Amino acid sequence: MNMFLPRICQNLSNPVTSSPMNGPAMVLTVLTTIFNILQYFNDVRYHVFLAIISVVKSHGLYEVLKPQLKNLDRWIVEWESDEDEQQKMFLEIAMAADDAGEAEYGIFISYLLVFSPPSHCHSLPVSNMKLSAPPGTSMLIYFFCLI
Fold first, then answer.
1. Tens-digit pLDDT profile for residues 21-49
2. Looking at the structure, do residues 17 and 27 belong to the same domain, yes or no?
3. What is the pLDDT at residue 126?
4. Deepest in the core among 78, 103, 122, 146, taking most CB within 10 A?
5. Is residue 26 located within the same domain as residue 90?
6. Would you state the torsion angle of the CA atoms of residues 110, 114, 120, 125, taken in this order, to the nearest 10 degrees?
């Protein structure tokens, strides 16, 4: 089953064209069910959670994700997530919060300060330390690259 879940999650993360109005809710229900039936220590839950974040982010449903964020610390320990996985997850959540206009993602900045910046950050130009992101770069990602 674990070998098929990444493909299933990827397919579910794509928009449901047959039901554009109810599609995101149906996808989140399926992904949440998969997440909940997996054993708590199964690291595949990490990948299912990333798929949930992807759907939340692409459909502006951050308020659906918000109540679950209190469990992140416990899940990271249970999944034995490494720093790269944690960084990816926190960055995706922070971007989803930013896209939703939420101002409470400061906690994610604290988490991300622990990690080294992604390698692509070193190529971003920083002129006179102005906070203006290069074209096509999210201001949030640019900020994380500056720290």
1. 667 888 898 899 999 999 988 888 999 99
2. yes
3. 47
4. 78
5. yes
6. 60
Q: How far is CA 95 from CA 68, 73, 91, 102, 113, in A?
A: 16, 19, 6, 10, 15
d(CA 6, CA 1): 10
- CA-based end-to-end distance of the chain: 40
Query: Are residues 145 and 117 in contact, defined by beta-carbon separation less than 8 angstroms?
Result: yes
Please give the radius of gyration of the chain, using alpha carbons only, rounded to the nearest integer: 16
**What tokens does 49 get?**
């959670």
Ranges of H-type helices in the chain: 5-13, 23-37, 44-59, 62-65, 72-79, 83-99, 106-113, 139-146
Range of the domain at 124: 117-147
Is 50 in contact with 12 (CB distance < 8 Å)? no
What's the length of the chain? 147
pLDDT, tens digit, 9 for 90 and up, residues 99-141: 887 765 555 665 666 565 555 555 545 443 344 444 444 545 5
For residues 121 and 79, state if they share a domain. no
